[in-house]
Amino acid sequence: MNPANHSQVTGFVLLGLSQIWELRFLFFIVFSAVYLMTVTGNILIVAVVVSNPCLHTTMYFLLSNLSFLDFCYSSITAPRMLVDLLSGNPTISFGGCLTQLFFFHFIGGIKIFLLTVMAYDRYVAISQPLRYTLIMNQTICGILVGASWVGGFIHSIVQVGLTIQLPFCGPDKLDNFYCDVPQLIKLACTDTFVLELLMVSNNGLVTLMCFLVLLGSYTALLVMLRSHSREGRSKALSTCASHIAVVTLIFLPCIYIYARPFRTFPMDKAVSVLYTMVTPMLNPAIYTLRNKDVIIAMKKLWRRQSCLLCFQSTDATDWTRQKP
């Protein structure tokens, strides 16, 4: 079905978080700060891992990939939401809506698969420490990350492929601050029961199964930790607790949104804000910024940049003095 021949709607009105100007302005201030912290924290982690050879390990490679994905994920929705909060009539074209939908599920799908890879990485590191570098070498790690990207692309293109066939003849108001499958399907001028089942299977059930697999793997890890030394157990527990916290913050909202019929519930927008804005900001703090190795690497990077600026300033001063 060609959407150009069956759709009278050329764009959608985004109802956003509120219609009250004072609330929208307050949301703009709060979420501008949240987005700034998200960008700064995640880009800082990527820069630190890339610049420090001591962090060129599998675990930090995966963490830097997660930080990059969090930066991209929040940038898909946050900048437009901030602009729309100050706009009197926020609208998005049909093509722009599908583009946002594609990248939202593309990056989100990669994150889900990458978290599964990270759980496998921690499982191997704890259960088989002597063979860890052999099992999780650079080639295997690169293949797993590449497979995550392919999986995210397939997941996303299925969403777009199913949505683009729907006829939209009005209404044109999306009850959210970004384009997503549940809101779009409700605007279609056709029976979408079968399509909803397909979407729930592709989104909700896959997410739920991945979440259960992750919980099972971390439970097995916690059981194995009983045989480790106190110091090793403490370090591994800290890592596992961080991973479980992030997994919970990412997966539970997704399960709430996608693993049920696409109906409107009072908590929908709050949950959407949680996993599109808040979780990408918290990931650096939970996963990485409290890690001693990362903190040391950040201090080294800061000193290196300070010394570089100092040398540049000294060179400029010397050149000025030598100038006739």
UniProtKB/TrEMBL annotation:
Its main location: membrane. One of its GO terms (molecular function) is G protein-coupled receptor activity. It is a multi-pass membrane protein. It holds the Pfam family 7tm_4. The keyword ATP-binding does not apply. Residues 41-287 form the G-protein coupled receptors family 1 profile domain. It is found in: Cell membrane. InterPro entries: GPCR_Rhodpsn (IPR000276), GPCR_Rhodpsn_7TM (IPR017452), Olfact_rcpt (IPR000725), Olfactory_Receptors (IPR050427). GO terms for cellular component: plasma membrane. Keywords: Cell membrane, G-protein coupled receptor, Membrane, Olfaction, Receptor, Sensory transduction, Transducer, Transmembrane, Transmembrane helix. The chain crosses the membrane at residues 25-50, 62-82, 102-120, 132-158, 205-225, 237-258, 270-289. It comes from the Eukaryota. Belongs to the G-protein coupled receptor 1 family. This is Olfactory receptor 4D5-like.
